[in-house]
TrEMBL record:
The gene is Psme4. The keyword Hydrolase does not apply. This is PSME4 protein. One of its GO terms (biological process) is DNA repair. It comes from Trogon melanurus. Residues 921-1007 form the Proteasome activator complex subunit 4 C-terminal domain. Its main location: cytoplasm. Pfam families: HEAT_PSME4 (PF23096), PSME4_C (PF11919). Residues 349-633 form the Proteasome activator complex subunit 4-like HEAT repeat-like domain. Gene3D superfamilies: Leucine-rich Repeat Variant.
Length: 1007
């Protein structure tokens, strides 16, 4: 009965190869196994504590079962070593061929070993069966070490011999029977380990076979009824946890309905009749084909019977009153795995899961919520679709080539407040397209939309029109007490501070309102009104989940029902948004974003009009204003290109309010602006967007920021964090506006699809003027944001036509009175050039401008700016953006020859002149230029370097800061060239080496 039925002859045929080693022709493996078995029985009966002998027996059984000349783990190790040797000795010119002879011999040997290992397990004989049973006996021994070693051999054998698992499972499950009194705790534990398996081997509890899991899963659950076992022991509890977790992680749905398509049979017959390759097979008669089909149907019927039996057996286990709670949870988890796409769950299980929605244990309720949502998906009725022609609807011909963006043929999908479906006739005449991406690039080959309501499944069905499964759900959710208890449970807090909008709960309510339309709305309405009045985090989250489910579930409702729904929802939403808190604003954002995802915006016009009702009205303070914007942003962002009118309206509303004082509102406005301009991208074959344009908006902003851009004095953040009363001057308004614009540019850098446009680059002089030099967190918000914004903008892609504009801005700023600005343009220049290296290299004029700018700033009178210019020059030389040519070297050498002013004696009481003279600055610029050239080659010594080092050494005794620059350069040169100095010193003459040695080697004080 434990044999696998087969249509192939499995009779044993004995084959002998090689030399005749024994005239008896005896099978030594069987003899060793037989003798070992007798010894094992004797030891287990008389001296089970002789663990060393048992270890040896396990080793013998393992070798007899599996050793055919090599072990699998040793073979894997040799295969890995072979691949490493092969890779290290390969000749890439020869490709994968022409390996040395030793490698080929190793490969042939490995191939032979692989063949012998692969052949193992293709036969499952009686001797194999007896040895595996012996290993099972040892795997449930009284001694932990014996069990552990036996289980390793047992798991290897299970993975080697085909179908042995079916034979061994009943024997393992015998140890788990709750009515057995003769099973010890050690045997019980060993059996659980046998079911669990090892890390990478076979798991008996989770085989992809109905005949197996229909035995193992109920046995695992019913083992909890055992009175003889101490199920509370930590090791046993951990084993059951591991078993359940492994089954949940590895289980894959097992098929119920296997079928061979007619096309496959036709191809098989063609292959059989083909002459290339020719076959002696005569083909199947129609009777044989019908017999095969009949067997296939019987197998499918048996699989379905097993599926239903497994569900009923697990339910029988759960309904046992004395089953411990842990095993009840395990059983419910197993039941949840049996939900399928192709078969509705049995009615008894559906009723169980619906009742579990109000179970006392939160773990069970979570599983039940997911399961009932899945059942509702199974019960979903198919909605009819009809083909349409979008070009006929738009009244425009099909374009000759594909063009993305807003075109005449897709404008009928846009949200238009003048033609919203606000009546039943307009609603039914409107052609709703739910998918947001349809029509933006092009239309599907066959465009389908949902058919009119009269061709769809009936809404508002009576109870007697429902199926048995639907009646169970209908009865429970029509019960006010059941719904009241469910809402109470859903309003409870689970994990303080970690709870979020739960998509499973959302799917539950979406399924309810999709399958039963508004049948449950009268019962839920008082609960919704009660929830919205409670500002607690968990109740608000529950309300958000239900409302999102309502909005999404009403997709196929009639106009009358949808209009009635929004009359209920709009007041609730207004109240909820006015009561929003720090803990719940994320949940409401998710609620609205989920509601609007893949939905035609014209269907949701009530929602969008509500959200656009003055979001910054000040009611509730700045936090509530920011939250309203966040929620609105979540809804509009889902609609992308289909709501240009709403985006224009929102931008028009926000523009006068950009001078917000509150930081949280500014940040949110910056984020909202990013999404408003998200679709404004300039790509090939893309039509101009109807949504707001960045360049138009930025041009208006530049006009408002003129007072700041034209001012020479330093801009300080003197705007207090409160709304001032009365008129404020243009400068104060400009600073507040600038703060919001900085937030927008920072948010855009990481989210938008395009980099800064030309108008935005015109803001750079202002940012250079504000950004601080040092990294200090004590700086105010304006300075920190300006520094961050410059950093992000410098990393953006520049279009070739923007390069002259940016360089003009940098040149203009280089003449600024503020050394902070002159310093900042150098840090900006470094990043900008490296991120756009090839664009600049393709423009010779731009390279010359940058060269001039950097060399010019070497002569800056501010030491910090000139040092940064030297660092920038060194980097540009190192990446070969600039080259160290004769004119550059001559220029620096001439600057180095500038005469220094003579030292004048000063009176003791006279003030010290701290401003360096122009000649000293130029001389220092020459030294900085030479230093930059030297430090640009840290790993080699070009031909021009020895002379530059000699030139530099002549300035070692110059006044500060020249002396410090020379010392630092020589120190860095010594550090970077130390490792390969023996090679590098070949580039120097003896005289140069002598001078260099004096400079680089520290004097010995004890000479």
């Amino acid at each position: 009965s434990h044999r696998v039925p087969s249509l192939v002859s499995l009779e044993e045929t004995k084959l002998y190869t090689g030399v005749e080693y024994d005239l008896s022709r005896e099978n030594y493996r069987e003899t060793i196994a037989r003798v070992t078995r007798k010894l094992l029985r004797y030891i287990l009966d008389n001296s089970e504590d002789d663990t060393k002998s048992l270890f040896l027996i396990i080793k013998i059984i393992s070798d007899v079962l599996q050793f055919q000349g090599s072990h699998k783990h040793e073979f894997d190790s040799r295969w890995k070593s072979f691949n490493l040797v092969k890779k290290s000795m390969e000749n890439r010119l020869q490709g994968k061929k022409q390996h040395i002879r030793a490698l080929l011999i190793d490969r042939v040997m490995l191939q032979h070993e692989l063949r012998t290992l692969t052949m193992e397990g293709c036969e499952y004989k009686t001797s194999h069966q007896e040895m595996i049973r012996d290993l099972l006996c040892l795997s449930t021994s009284s001694y932990g070490q014996v069990r552990s070693k036996a289980q390793q051999a047992f798991f290897t054998a299970l993975g080697t011999y085909n179908f042995c698992c079916r034979d061994i499972i009943p024997l393992v499950l015998e140890f788990l029977r709750p009515d057995r009194q003769d099973v010890t705790q050690k045997q019980f534990k060993g059996a659980l380990y046998c079911l669990l398996g090892n890390h990478s081997g076979v798991c008996l509890a989770n085989l992809h076979d109905w005949d197996c899991i229909v035995q193992t899963w109920p046995a695992i659950v019913s083992s909890g009824l055992s009175k003889a076992m101490s199920l509370e022991k930590p090791s046993i509890v951990r084993l059951f946890d591991d078993l359940a977790e492994k089954i949940h992680r590895q289980y894959e749905t097992i098929g119920l309905d296997f079928a061979v398509p007619e096309k496959c049979i036709e191809i098989a017959i063609m292959l059989q009749k083909s002459e290339h390759p020719s076959s002696s097979f005569t083909g199947l008669r129609s009777e044989e084909i019908q017999l095969g089909i009949q067997r296939q149907k019987e197998k499918n019927t048996e699989a379905l019977r097993n599926y239903e039996n497994l569900v009923n057996m697990l339910l029988d286990c759960v309904e046992q009153r004395n089953l411990p709670w842990k095993f009840e949870h395990i059983s419910i988890g197993f039941l949840s795995l049996l939900l399928r796409d192709d078969r509705i769950l049995p009615v008894r299980a559906i009723k169980f899961f619906v009742q579990c929605l109000n179970h006392d244990a939160i773990v069970v309720r979570k599983v039940a919520i997911s399961a009932v949502a899945g059942v509702l998906k199974q019960l979903k009725r198919t909605h009819k679709k009809v083909p349409i022609c979008p070009y006929e609807i738009s009244g425009n011909p099909k374009p000759s080539n594909i063009q993305a963006g807003d075109r005449p043929d897709n404008q009928w999908l846009h949200y238009d407040s003048q033609s919203l479906p606000k009546t039943k006739e307009a609603w039914e005449a409107c052609c709703f397209v739910e998918k947001t991406h349809w029509g933006y690039y092009t239309w599907p080959r066959t465009m389908t939309v949902y058919a009119p309501a009269e061709h769809q499944p009936k809404l508002g069905r009576r109870r007697d029109e429902l199926t048995e499964a639907e009646q169970i759900i209908y009865d429970h959710f029509s019960d006010p007490k059941f719904v009241e208890q469910l809402i109470k449970f859903l309003s409870l807090e689970d994990r303080k501070g970690k709870d979020k909008f739960n998509p499973r709960r959302f799917c539950l309510f979406k399924g309810l309102f999709r399958n039963f339309d508004d049948a449950f709305l009268p019962i839920l309405q008082p609960h919704l009104e009660q929830l919205v009045a409670d500002s607690h985090e968990s109740t608000q989250r529950c309300l958000a989940e239900i409302m999102a489910g309502l909005i999404r579930g009403s997709k196929h409702w009639t106009f009358e029902k949808v209009e009635k729904l929004w009359k209920l929802l709009c007041p609730l939403l207004r109240t909820a948004l006015s009561n929003i808190t720090v803990e719940t604003y994320n949940d409401w954002g998710t609620c609205i974003a989920t509601s609007c995802e893949s939905r035609d915006p014209r269907k949701l016009h009530w929602l969008f009009e509500l959200l656009l009702e003055s979001p910054l009205n000040g009611e509730g303070g700045s936090f509530v204003d920011a939250c309203r914007l966040y929620v609105l942003q979540g809804g509009l962002a889902q609609q992308e290109w289909r709501v240009p009118e709403l985006l224009h309206r929102l931008l028009k509303y926000l523009e006068p309010k950009l001078t917000q004082v509150y930081k949280n509102v500014r940040e949110r406005i910056g984020s909202v602006l990013t999404y408003i301009f998200m679709i404004d991208v300039s790509l090939p074959n893309t039509a101009a967007t109807k949504s707001p344009r960045i360049h138009e908006f930025t041009a208006r902003i530049l006009e408002n920021l003129k007072p700041l851009m034209e001012a020479d004095e330093e801009i300080q953040n003197h705007v207090m964090e409160e709304n001032g009363v009365g008129e404020q001057d243009e400068r104060t308004q400009g600073i507040k506006l600038l703060k919001t614009i900085l937030k927008w540019l920072m948010a855009s850098a990481g989210r938008s699809f395009s980099t800064a446009v030309t108008e935005q680059l015109q803001l750079l002089p202002l940012f250079f003027k504000i950004a601080p030099v040092e990294n200090d967190n004590s700086y105010d918000e304006l300075k920190r944001d300006a520094k961050m914004c410059l950093s992000l903008m410098s990393q953006g892609l520049l279009y070739p036509q923007q390069v002259p504009l940016v360089l003009q801005v940098l040149k203009q700023t280089a003449r600024s009175n503020s050394w902070h600005a002159r310093y900042t343009i150098l840090t900006y220049l470094q990043t900008m050039v490296f991120y756009n290296l090839f664009i600049f290299l393709n423009n010779e004029e731009a390279v010359n401008d940058i060269r001039w700018l950097v060399i010019k700033l070497l002569e800056d009178e501010q030491l910090e700016a000139s040092k940064m210019a030297a660092t920038t020059l060194s980097g540009l030389l190192q990446c070969n953006f600039l080259t160290m040519d004769g004119p550059m070297q001559t220029h620096f050498e001439q600057l180095c020859k500038m005469r220094l002013p003579k030292k004048r004696k000063r009176d003791l009481g006279a003030a010290v002149d701290t401003i360096p003279s122009g000649d000293l600055v130029k001389r220092h610029a020459g030294v900085l230029g030479l230093s930059a050239c030297i430090l640009s080659s840290p790993y080699d010594v070009p031909t021009w370097m020895p002379q530059l080092l000699m030139d530099l050494s002549a300035h070692l005794n110059d006044p500060q800061p020249i002396e410090m620059t020379v010392k630092k350069t020589l120190s860095n040169f010594r550090r970077t060239h130390h490792d390969n100095w023996q090679e590098h010193k070949q580039q120097f003459t003896d005289d140069q080496l002598l001078v260099l040695t004096d400079l680089l080697v520290s004097p010995c004080y004890y000479a």
